[in-house]
Design brief:
Largest sheet: 6 strands, antiparallel
Number of strands: 44
Radius of gyration: 62 Å
Strand content: 15-25%
Number of helices: 45
């Protein structure tokens, strides 16, 4: 036979048959339609006839089931509802029913044609729903059925009856059950059953498209259907034609649309879900779906989700008269819908995997049940194991209720005749699940002869060969019995239950009855029926095995009786058995050597006759060949535990078993085996360190002893087993210790002063101490799984929550501890020192520490909250105080600068005027002392003075000379007073800076010897005037170190030298010997009193609080410079020396009266030396003189600093070498007198000719020409200082121009010869001859005041330097000297940073200005030549 013919099944034949046909399954459940062919499904009328109410088609179904014709054989055909039906039975399990238009030839012809009723057929959408009873049979309604002949003009109603898609093999898929006595149940096709799959024959309530059009789409975000986008319309039409359940979520609101297959998953929510957002539609999983769709839109790829359980809400129907939830398992994926590179929506296809998951769960339950039942050895244990295994089934969804009865003969009913009792069976309760004790649904016994609730059902089960269905809907399962039950599984009450008879074989009586509640969240479908059938088969086959086993047991007993008969024969084999017993003992001893338990045999006195190796290793006994005495074994036991062994062995005389514990000693000469628990995974997982057990001095042993007794009860021998439990003891102690430690930590957390907490990654609080709740302002609650508290979101200030969230994300990513300072919404209250209440936001330091699970995944984090509100408040106060201090310091600096500026400006004018007066009078004195021919002219010139003095005739010249000399003395006195006032001002300003801690030490690279020479030069005139010899000595120690330049603050050092030299001259000028010397020395170690001639003053308290500059240990080589100022004055007594170096204190009260002074000089000198990490001291003898010495710490400069200093020194030396005379006013006047020897007389105040102010002279080192100063611009806003400076410079022979402020200076700069593109129509300037020159001004240097209106000097200097960078100034760098009364080093550095080449502090004298100009000119030209 051909292979293809063998593969053809019944479904293939019916598929090709044009006659309407369907298949009814008779077993294992009541008759059910399981298949309809295409010809049948094409006509709605046929389906209505078959599925009509039972009173209308009872005859048809009795004929199909074969139960309505008991009087004779079942006919193969039936005429019903004007249709000729044929019936064929297959394998006694299935019935194939066909509908025919014509009767066969053997019967009379029928004149009724079915096509005349075609118009009367009912549409599926109007078919009433089918109701199902427990044992009812549907009746047939005579409804016209359309014709299916080829000549009929009526086409199949495809709009109302949709044919299901074919399963494998082209077989149509299942359709909804609608058959009469039971719902139509789809069955899967397998290789062991006929090749067909149950179709879905449930008629639809109405077409799905009508439902779609009934939705008010205009009220949804999608709008009317006509306004839908083309992409949406196309996608929706696509899924409508798809048989798979698919939904669409469209637009930003994720509006829901789905096809007809998907509507079945919606249950009773259909069609309300149409047009709803995804969150409203699926609030159980809406957020999850929404998050997945957002992720897909970002990653541009679809996502397949794992399987998840879903409960479909079903309305009332055949299985229930109320709404219920259906357990469903789904797998789904989300596919983005793109249009113009933009995600406009998502497709949500779903695959229903419920059947597979339920089949796996139920099959596992059946397999486990079979494995347990096979272990039962009798019927009684069979019932116990059955109910026990049903109780252990997980999950419990399919067994929410189970009641098991075993059926026995009723002894009371057996005395009666069967006619009287009806049945002699009684049911005894073997077990129940979900039923409380004493509940009426499960009484202990049920007599089947009675009329109780289940008696009739159980009687019916005794004769039935299939399970019986009980439902609450039809009352077969009474509702009043379902109350107060402990429902298993979902906890929902069952809507139905089945009663399963348990009989070993079909021919035997029922031995047990199982009442099984059905899953309330699953319908009683075909799969459920098959599962019940398989469960019934499993119980039946297992019971059959038990019955057979008991039968075998009975046969065994019979065999035992037969064995007694052969006892005599067995005696002959006794010797053989004895030998075998000895061999067994030997085998036992051999096996005992490998057992990890110490085993020994002995008598009741404790003497050991046999012991294995493990016993020796555990006890530490050295072993031997013979028996071990009791005392020999006890020697290995700790002495305190020996009485335990003796007492327990005494108990064996009356007791069979004893168990005790003792300790043994550790023998160093015997290798004791490691405990068996050493490698226990439980210990390793717990983290217990048992590596030190072998080093323990004693070991714990657990012993179990059993006495073997003879027939008379006397002890024969004792078997003892020893187990080393040292590791277990250690583990127990460690567990107790850890538990105590955990308890201590818990107590510590409760009493801690910081808030401690534990949270999951979503910020939900898992645990916290009381301080945490107090800080956050939360009420203390008991935390559990149902508690949802997120303190960060509630208690942290919104501005700080983002920082905390970032720290949490960073902690989870980096797996590192994070810290954050945040504010809580609670407040922190305290009192300050003044008693004022302070209320500020509470600041906390939050620590986040990740916590990993045993799998290494970060699931939560723990940490603590430290209240830092006090520190934050103190920090804010310190910031406020700092700002106030900075503002106070700024105001103090402004006050000092203003005071310095206002006091130095008048002093500068006084000194300049006094110098001019002195120069003028000196010139007059020279003229008076000249030849006699000039006397008349002088007399005429000084006529006014002579007339005022009213001198007698003959003495005019003498009186004039005296007047001139007195005027010169007065002018010099003015200069001296001004210089003294300048020192007083300097001292007061220095004291103010010291008190305000504004005095700064600014080191620069300087030649110390040159600095001392400059200081001495300042006192040369005064020393010559009072006849004091000044000299300087450079010590050999200075030369030995080859020092030339060092880094220190020359201004502060010179200030100390000036103070000491001032005192030395003051107290020496009245003595007989008038010598003042300055000695400079150096050393690499700090000078001490032993290495010097003075006693140094201890460091003051104020200097200890201040930091010296540079700070010690800064890494550079230091050198200590020592200066000694020695005079031959009157000296000091011991008492006077003690008063020195204090503020406003002089040596004695007579000092101020005789010499004047403020008493600040030595105090300031002491502070200045201490600021430079030095000290000052004194040595003096009355009448001999005094020596004041001090030292400072200087530092070796860098090579670049030395080069810059050498260039500057060379330039200064070259400029000084260009001067033929000393820069003094008197010498300049001598030059003028030399120029007046021609006989001409120049009146005072008139301009007189002078030689060129610059004379060329070669330099000794760099061979630089002396700088030429052609023109000077004086920028000064003070008219007095402006005119005095201008007149002094003009008298010295320089060309001078003046400007009142910076803007005027820049304007005049454009008219000089240094400005590129300057014209020749500039303003007239005054030259040395007093003539006016119309040409451009020959500018060489600028004297720039700093404090000026309109534009200050620093801004003007920056503008000039910017013009130089722009190339608008020719001749290289234009020298600028800042002339100001601001004497702070910070102000001097600020002026140099602005572009000034040097700074000259007011008050100054004209020779100092001349020298400073030549030095700056030399430096500028030197740098230009160096480049």
């Amino acid at each position: 036979m051909h292979t293809s013919f063998l593969d053809t099944g019944i479904i293939d034949l019916l598929e090709a048959d044009p006659r309407p046909s369907f298949i009814v399954a008779l077993t294992p459940h009541p008759p059910t339609i399981v298949y309809t062919n295409p010809a049948f499904t094409s006509y709605a009328g046929l389906l209505d006839i078959v599925t009509a109410k039972k009173e209308n088609n009872a005859k048809l179904w009795e004929w199909i089931a074969g139960t309505g014709f008991a009087s004779g054989p079942m006919p193969s055909s039936l005429s019903h509802a004007s249709i000729y039906w044929t019936r064929s039975v297959v394998h006694d399990q299935m019935v194939v029913v066909g509908a025919n238009e014509q009767v066969p030839e053997s019967e009379p012809p029928r004149k009724v044609r079915l096509d005349v009723f075609a118009q009367g057929g009912r549409d599926r959408s109007t078919s009433p729903p089918m109701t199902t009873g427990s044992n009812d049979v549907s009746s047939i309604v005579a409804t016209p059925v359309p014709s299916w002949s080829s000549q009929s003009s009526l086409s199949p109603d495809l709009g109302a009856l949709r044919r299901a898609k074919s399963s494998p093999g082209g077989v149509p898929g299942p359709i909804h059950p609608m058959a009469g006595p039971e719902a139509v149940r789809p069955l899967s096709r397998s290789t062991s059953e006929p090749g067909w799959i149950l179709p879905d024959t449930m008629p639809e309530q109405r077409p799905f498209l009508e439902v779609i059009h009934c939705v008010d789409w205009a009220a949804t975000p999608l709008g009317p259907i006509k306004a839908w986008p083309a992409r949406l319309d196309q996608t929706f039409n696509q899924i409508l034609a798809d048989s798979r359940p698919i939904a669409i979520y469209w637009g930003p609101s994720y509006t829901t649309i789905y096809n007809e297959a998907f509507s079945k998953l919606c249950g009773s929510k259909h069609p309300q879900l149409l047009g709803m957002s995804v969150e409203a539609a699926w609030h159980e999983a809406g957020e999850r779906l929404k998050d997945s769709m957002r992720t897909i839109a970002q990653k541009h790829r679809s996502v397949d989700e794992d399987e998840w359980r879903f409960f479909v809400e079903r309305g009332s129907g055949p299985d229930s008269d109320s709404a219920w939830l259906e357990e469903t398992y789904l797998k789904w994926s989300i596919i983005p819908i793109w249009e113009n590179s933009q995600c406009v929506g998502f497709m949500h296809p779903v695959i229903d995997t419920t059947s597979m998951r339920l089949w796996e769960r139920r099959m596992k339950m059946l397999i486990d049940l079979g494995e347990v039942l096979v272990m039962a050895r009798d019927v009684k244990s069979y019932w116990q194991k059955t109910i026990g295994q049903l109780a252990s089934v997980e999950p419990r969804y399919d067994i929410p209720l189970a009641i098991l009865y075993n059926v026995e003969e009723d002894p009371d009913a057996m005395a009666l005749s069967p006619a009287q009792s009806g049945t002699t069976k009684i049911c005894r309760l073997a077990g129940a699940l979900g039923v409380p004790t004493g509940h009426p649904i499960a009484p202990d016994t049920i007599s089947l002869a009675g009329d109780t609730t289940f008696a009739s059902v159980f009687r019916e089960v005794l004769t039935a060969h299939h399970p019986i269905l009980l439902q609450t809907k039809d009352g077969s399962l009474p509702q009043h019995l379902l109350g107060d039950l402990d429902w298993r599984g979902f906890g929902d009450p069952c809507r139905a239950a089945v009663v399963l008879p348990i009989r070993p074989t079909k021919e035997e009586n029922v031995m047990g009855i199982l009442l099984l509640g059905l899953n309330p969240r699953r319908p009683l479908d075909n799969d459920y029926r098959q599962y019940i059938s398989l469960l019934s088969q499993k119980l039946t086959t297992s019971l059959a095995s038990i019955v057979l086993l008991e039968e075998e047991a009975r046969r065994g007993r019979n065999a035992a009786e037969q064995a007694a008969y052969d006892q005599a024969m067995l005696k002959e084999k006794l010797a053989v058995q004895t030998r075998e017993a000895n061999e067994s003992i030997q085998m036992f001893e051999a096996v005992a050597e490998f057992v990890p338990v110490g085993m020994c045999f002995g008598d009741t006195e404790g003497n050991i006759t046999f012991a294995n190796d493990t016993w020796y290793k555990i006890t530490g006994h050295p072993g031997g060949t013979g028996p071990i005495s009791n005392q020999g074994f006890l020697a290995c036991v700790i002495e305190e535990d020996r009485h335990i062994i003796i007492d327990e062995y005494e108990k064996l005389k009356t007791t069979r078993n004893v168990q005790f514990e003792f300790r043994v000693k550790r023998r160093s000469d015997i290798g004791i085996a490691a405990p068996l628990t050493r490698n226990s995974p439980s210990f390793e997982k717990a983290g217990l360190d048992l590596s030190s057990l072998e080093d323990m001095a004693e070991r714990h042993v657990l012993a179990a002893a059993k006495a073997e007794r003879t027939a008379d009860g006397s002890s024969l021998r004792v078997l003892t087993c020893l187990t080393d439990v040292t590791a277990h003891k250690q583990a127990t102690e460690e567990a107790v210790r850890r538990a105590q430690q955990a308890e201590n930590l818990k107590r510590m957390a409760e009493f801690a002063t910081v808030g401690m907490y534990d949270m999951d990654l979503e910020g939900r609080l898992l645990g916290a101490n009381n301080v945490f709740f107090e800080m956050c302002g939360l009420a203390k609650v008991e935390l559990g799984d149902d508690t949802d508290i997120k303190p960060w979101q509630k208690c942290v200030v919104e501005e700080d929550y983002s920082l905390l969230a970032r720290k949490m994300e960073r902690m989870a990513i980096e797996d590192k501890v994070q810290n954050a300072e945040v504010r809580l919404k609670t407040t922190w209250t305290a009192e300050d020192g003044a008693g004022h209440k302070v209320v500020v936001p509470r600041w906390v330091q939050a620590t986040l520490m990740p916590v990993r699970t045993s799998e290494g995944v970060i699931s939560s984090f723990t940490g603590c909250l430290s209240d830092v509100s006090l520190q934050k408040w103190q920090l804010e106060r310190e910031k406020q105080r700092k700002e106030e201090a900075i503002e106070s310091k700024r105001q103090q600096e402004n006050f000092i600068d203003m005071t310095s500026h206002e006091m130095r400006n008048p002093l500068s004018a006084i000194i300049h005027c006094a110098d001019a007066i002195t120069a003028t009078l000196t010139r007059v004195q020279e003229l008076v002392s000249d030849d006699a021919h000039l006397s008349s002219a002088i007399s005429d010139t000084m006529s006014d003075l002579i007339s005022v003095t009213k001198s007698p005739p003959g003495e005019p010249q003498t009186e004039v000379r005296e007047l001139v000399e007195n005027s010169i003395d007065s002018a010099e006195t003015i200069v001296g007073c001004a210089q003294h006032q300048k020192r007083i001002v300097d001292d007061i300003l220095t004291m103010s800076k010291l008190d305000s801690k504004l005095l700064a030490i600014t080191p620069i690279t300087v030649n110390p010897v040159q600095m001392v020479q400059e200081a001495l030069k300042m006192f040369e005139v005064e020393a010559r005037r009072v006849d004091i010899t000044l000299n300087m000595v450079v010590d050999e120690s200075y030369r030995d170190l080859s020092l030339r330049y060092l880094d220190f603050d020359p201004s502060r050092l010179k200030q100390v030298l000036i103070n000491l030299l001032t005192n030395a001259l003051k107290f020496t000028k009245t003595g007989p010997t008038r010598n003042v010397s300055v000695t400079i020395s150096a050393s690499q170690s700090r000078p001490t009193e032993a290495s010097s001639s003075v006693q140094f003053i201890p460091r003051s308290k104020e200097s200890e609080d201040e930091e010296c500059f540079p700070p010690p240990g800064h890494g550079r080589d230091s050198v200590f410079l020592m200066f000694e100022v020695k005079d031959t004055g009157q000296g000091l007594t011991e008492g006077e020396k003690k008063s020195l170096f204090q503020r406003f204190v002089q040596a004695s009260s007579r000092t101020h009266v005789k010499y004047g002074g403020s008493g600040l000089g030595l105090f300031i000198s002491r502070r200045l030396t201490e600021l430079q990490n030095g000290a000052i001291g004194v040595a003096s003898q009355p009448g001999v003189g005094s020596t004041f010495a001090f030292y400072i710490e200087a530092y070796m400069p860098s090579e670049s600093a030395i080069r810059d200093a050498e260039i500057a020194a060379a330039a200064a030396k070259a400029s000084v070498a260009g001067l033929r005379v000393a820069p003094t006013v008197n010498v300049r006047n001598k030059q003028r007198s030399a120029s007046s020897t021609s006989g001409s007389t120049t009146p005072l105040g008139a301009p007189r000719p002078s030689p060129s102010p610059v004379l060329a002279s070669p330099s000794s080192e760099l061979s630089l020409a002396a700088p030429q100063i052609r023109g000077i611009m004086v920028v000064e806003d003070n008219l007095i200082n402006q005119q005095i400076t201008r007149r002094g410079l003009v008298n010295m022979g320089f060309t001078v121009d003046v400007a009142n402020h910076g803007v005027e200076c820049l304007d005049k700069l454009r008219r000089t010869d240094r400005f590129v593109g300057s014209n020749h129509d500039g303003n007239a300037v005054v030259n040395g001859n007093g003539d006016k020159d119309k040409d451009v001004f020959p500018l060489s240097i600028i004297l720039m005041d700093i404090e000026m209106p309109i534009q200050d000097g620093l801004t003007c200097t920056r503008n000039i330097r910017e013009l130089e960078r722009q190339g608008k100034i020719t001749g290289g760098r234009l020298p600028i000297i800042a002339v100001s009364a601001n004497a702070r080093m910070e102000q001097i550095l600020e002026a140099k940073q602005a572009g000034c080449d040097d700074v000259l502090v007011k008050p100054y004298r004209m020779p100092e200005l001349l020298e400073k100009m030549r030095i700056v000119m030399g430096m500028v030209e030197g740098h230009a030549c160096g480049r």
